[in-house]
Amino acid sequence: MAPVRRVRRVVRRIDPWTVLKVSFVFNAIMALAFVLGSVIFWSIFVNAGVPDKITDFAERLTLTFEADGELYFRVVLLLAVIWAILMTGLATLGSVLYNLIADTVGGVEVVVLEEVITTPVTPGGNVGIRPARRPATRRASPPRQASPTPRPPVPATDQPAAAATVEAAKSESPPAPAAPAQQTRPADATG
Fold first, then answer.
1. How do beta strands 129-131 and 4-11 pair?
2. pLDDT tens, residue by residue, 45-87
3. How far apart are CA 54 and CA 67, in angstroms?
4. Biggest CA pair distance of the chain
5. Is 187 exposed, middle or buried (CB count within 10 Å of its CB: 0-12, 13-18, 19+)?
6. Highest-pLDDT range among 19-23, 59-63, 69-73, 166-170
7. Closest CA to 12 of 90, 109, 92, 93
8. Cβ-count burial of 88 within 10 angstroms (0-12 exposed, 13-18 middle, 19+ buried)?
9. Burial (CB count within 10 angstroms: exposed 0-12, middle 13-18, buried 19+), residue 70
10. Helix 16-47 × helix 69-105 angle, to 10°
11. What are phi and psi of 107, to 5 degrees?
12. Are 124 and 141 within 8 A, CB to CB?
């Protein structure tokens, strides 16, 4: 088993649009499963003769009861559609409320176990340890600044010439700063 380290993460925001899409697909699949399950249950129920037995029992009690499968299917379908829309709206509203509360209290802290993968020893190198996965968020890197003294290009084929270029660059002294110009007043002709 690879070594594991504990990492604390804070869930500060949940995107409501993503929650809407995911919960809609999930609730649509659940509604479809509910409708199909009800149809299968009703067909087994009818094949066993249970609705006829319930109708006969209701007639003995002087009640009127008629098992109408098509009506029941319509009711189940309507309830499934209403349930899917209602649960999708509630999940989206829940994500908006979570974001408002997380802005106030800072979010939910989650402890995650992160697997650490070790790389084999390379000849002449050290053992490197890196995390199994990097976080999905990107952080802005600070802007890079240019180096203060540009270096002259070094030709790759001529090593003595390269050394001479480096020595010449070192021996050059920086130019002396220019002296500020003195301002003179024009001579006054009257005085």
1. unpaired
2. 888 888 778 777 777 777 776 777 788 889 999 999 999 999 9
3. 8
4. 138
5. exposed
6. 19-23
7. 109
8. buried
9. exposed
10. 150
11. 100, -175
12. no
Where in the chain does DSSP place strands (E)?
A: 4-11, 108-118, 129-131
* C-beta of residue 20 within 8 angstroms of C-beta of residue 88: yes
Residue 108, SS3 per DSSP: strand
Amino acid 177 reads: P
pLDDT tens-digit series, residues 97-114: 999 999 999 889 999 888
Smallest Cα–Cα separation from 47: which of 69, 28, 80?
Answer: 69
- Closest-CA residue to 110 (of 22, 12, 2): 12
Q: What residues does each domain of the chain span?
A: 4-119
